[in-house]
């Protein structure tokens, strides 16, 4: 199926701010977020309120981008990537009542310009993935990734630096 292409700058749908030439494929659940010019969002992606995606990004299918995630320009996010925004998630409070937004602390995550995140990666909250870094498929990122580093594994560890482009 063909994606929906937004051609006019700053259109809004479901309180989503969409840049120019954004392409969104079917079954995307996006609300209260920002998606920059020229970005492409694959099928079955969720982008929650307060998340931001920069210009010319590729977000592959089945990815979950939660509140507090900020993705800068020219970033590649592979299939089935999961971001986490709460270090100590719980369903209920000590008194047994269901937690609400007031009961947890959001910890923002940043993916810097030009980074690439492989398929099936999990990124814990409070992490920064540096400029032009690469995260190998299937990795679990538990700490910051320096700029231009290539990391992989569980937990993700530095393997080497990215080659010059």
Give the topology.
Blueprint lengths: L3 E3 L4 E3 L2 E3 L3 E3 L4 E2 L3 E2 L4 E2 L4 E2 L4 E2 L4 E2 L4 E2 L3 E3 L4 E2 L4 E2 L25 E3 L4 E2 L4 E2 L4 E2 L4 E2 L4 E2 L7 E4 L4 E5 L4
Parallel strand pairs: 3-6, 4-7, 5-8, 6-9, 7-10, 8-11, 9-12, 10-13, 12-15, 13-16, 14-17, 15-18, 16-19, 17-20, 19-21
Antiparallel strand pairs: 1-4, 2-3, 21-22
Kindly name the structural category.
mainly beta
Q: CATH superfamily of the domain at 4-87 and 103-130, please? A: Hexapeptide repeat proteins
Q: Give the mean pLDDT.
A: 93
Task: Characterize the biggest β-sheet.
Answer: 9 strands, mixed
CATH architectural label of the domain at 4-87 and 103-130:
3 Solenoid
Residue share in β-strands: 25-35%
CATH class of the domain at 4-87 and 103-130: Mainly Beta
> What is the N-to-C succession of helices and strands?
EEEEEEEEEEEEEEEEEEEEEE
* Rg on CA atoms, Å: 16 Å
| Weakly predicted, low-confidence segments | none
Total number of beta strands: 22
Report how far the terminal alpha carbons are from each other: 34 Å
Helix content: under 10%
Quaternary state reads single chain
What is the CATH topology classification name of the domain at 4-87 and 103-130? UDP N-Acetylglucosamine Acyltransferase, domain 1
Silhouette: globular
Number of helices: 0
Strand numbers in spatial order across the main sheet:
1-4-7-10-13-16-19-21-22
Verbal overview:
A hairpin with a 2-residue loop joins β2 and β3. This protein is an all-beta fold. It has no helices and 22 strands. The protein has a domain at about 5-85 and about 105-130: Hexapeptide repeat proteins (UDP N-Acetylglucosamine Acyltransferase, domain 1). The model has no long low-confidence stretch (mean pLDDT about 95). The termini are far apart. The protein has strands at about 5, 10-15, 15-20, 20-25, 30, 35, 40, 45, 50-55, 60, 65, 70, 75, 80-85, 110, 115, 120-125, 130, 135, 140, 150, 155-160. The protein is about 0% helix and about 35% strand.
């Amino acid at each position: 199926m063909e994606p929906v292409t937004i051609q006019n700058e700053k259109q809004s749908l479901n309180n989503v701010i969409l840049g120019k030439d954004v392409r969104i494929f079917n079954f995307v659940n996006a609300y209260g977020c920002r998606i920059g010019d020229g970005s492409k969002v694959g099928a079955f992606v969720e982008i929650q309120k307060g998340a931001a995606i920069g210009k010319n990004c590729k977000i592959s299918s089945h990815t979950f981008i939660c509140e507090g995630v900020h993705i800068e320009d020219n970033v590649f996010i592979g299939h089935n990537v999961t971001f986490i925004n709460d270090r100590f998630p719980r369903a209920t409070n000590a008194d047994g009542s269901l937690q609400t937004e007031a009961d947890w602390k959001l910890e923002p995550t940043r993916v810097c310009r030009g980074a690439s995140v492989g398929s099936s990666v999990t990124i814990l909250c409070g992490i920064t993935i540096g400029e032009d870094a690469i995260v190998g498929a299937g990795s679990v990122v538990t700490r910051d990734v320096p700029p231009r580093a290539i990391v992989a594994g569980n937990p993700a560890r530095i393997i080497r630096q990215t080659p010059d482009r």
